[in-house]
Design brief:
Layout (H helix, E strand, L loop, with lengths): L1 H21 L7 H22 L3 E5 L3 E3 L3 E12 L1 H5 L6 E8 L2 E9 L4 E6 L3 E4 L2 E3 L11 E4 L9 H14 L2 E3 L4 H9 L5 E4 L4 H13 L3 E3 L7 H4 L2 E4 L1 H15 L5
Parallel strand pairs: 1-3, 9-10, 9-11
Antiparallel strand pairs: 1-2, 3-4, 4-5, 5-6, 6-7, 7-8, 11-13, 12-13
This protein binds adenosine-2'-monophosphate (2AM) and calcium ion.
The site of adenosine-2'-monophosphate has 13 residues, from strand 3 and helix 3.
Length: about 260
């Protein structure tokens, strides 16, 4: 998984250099980025098929590709943080998860520009460039830093998000929006952020991050405290002490009880 991620990322990093040159053109680098994204996905599919010929795939670009082995499936986002990449902002990642019998078994999130390789395997802990990582130990909302995703043009529920943001910003040390859900989850696993929530995501945005956070000692749920993250697209990730207060504040702001 790490080998495939590095291979795809090497080309992505080169393409990222090109993107800057394309900003000044009227159309911008959109088509170029879309090709870079698809090429990265092809590389990942090729490399992982070579290693495990029978596993299936769930790919952001190509969708579902059935494998002979029905219990193992790769869930892949070749370029998470596409908007950042498109705008020449160096915060994006390759995300690969291995789902086994319906459960995320292993995950790799690779951020090529700063060479950060986040890895986790069920029961083996979470690592950054080979060193063990843990979720943060902060237990006070007012000391805690949260990450989220701000809804954009389209289907997401903007008023609900504004209520949640208002409630969290009022009692925390700050809220960040960096634009890659995969890296947000990896940063939770590394103890950088203390909590993260977002809605409207797809399975490939969060699959690898889920096992990373869990193996780093954190908690992942949907916004109702259930485990329907992958199907609902809503996710909350945090450490043990902040789990209850963060869940509560998001729930109460959704129901209009807060702020
Ligand atoms: P992407 O960069 O692969 O599109 C940002 O809020 C997060 O939402 C990113 O992880 C981004 O993944 C994800 N996302 C999912 N659907 C999106 C969309 N239609 N537009 C922008 N970001 C989207
Ligand atoms: Ca994504």
């Amino acid at each position: 998984m790490t080998g495939a991620a590095r291979k795809a990322a090497r080309k992505l990093a080169r393409d990222f250099g090109e993107v800057e040159n394309l900003q000044i053109s009227k159309k911008g680098p959109a088509d170029f980025v879309s090709t870079a994204d698809k090429t990265a996905e092809k590389t990942l599919q090729y490399e992982l098929s070579k290693a495990r010929p029978n596993f299936g795939f769930l790919l952001e670009e190509r969708g579902e590709v059935a494998g002979a082995d029905t219990s193992n499936r790769w869930i892949i986002d070749p370029l998470d943080g596409t908007t950042n990449f498109l705008h020449g902002i160096a915060h994006f990642a390759v995300s690969i998860a291995l789902e086994r019998d319906g459960e995320i078994f292993a995950g790799v999130i690779y951020e090529p520009i700063h060479d950060q390789m986040f890895t986790a395997e069920k029961g083996q802990g979470a690592h950054l460039n080979g060193g063990r990582i843990r979720v943060s130990g902060r237990n006070q909302m007012h000391e805690s830093l949260f990450a989220t995703g701000i809804p954009f043009k389209g289907v997401r529920n903007h008023p609900l998000f504004l209520r949640q943001l208002e409630a969290v910003m009022a009692i925390s040390a700050g809220v960040r929006r960096f634009g890659s859900a995969a890296l947000d989850l990896a940063y939770i696993a590394a103890g950088r952020y203390d909590g993260f929530w977002e809605t409207g995501l797809s399975p490939w945005d969060m699959a690898a991050g889920i096992v990373l956070v869990r193996e780093a000692g954190g908690f992942v749920s949907d916004l109702d405290g259930g485990q329907d993250m992958m199907s609902s697209g809503a996710i909350l990730a945090t450490n043990a002490p902040l789990r209850e207060p963060l869940e509560r504040i998001l729930r109460e702001s959704a129901s209009g009880k807060r702020p």
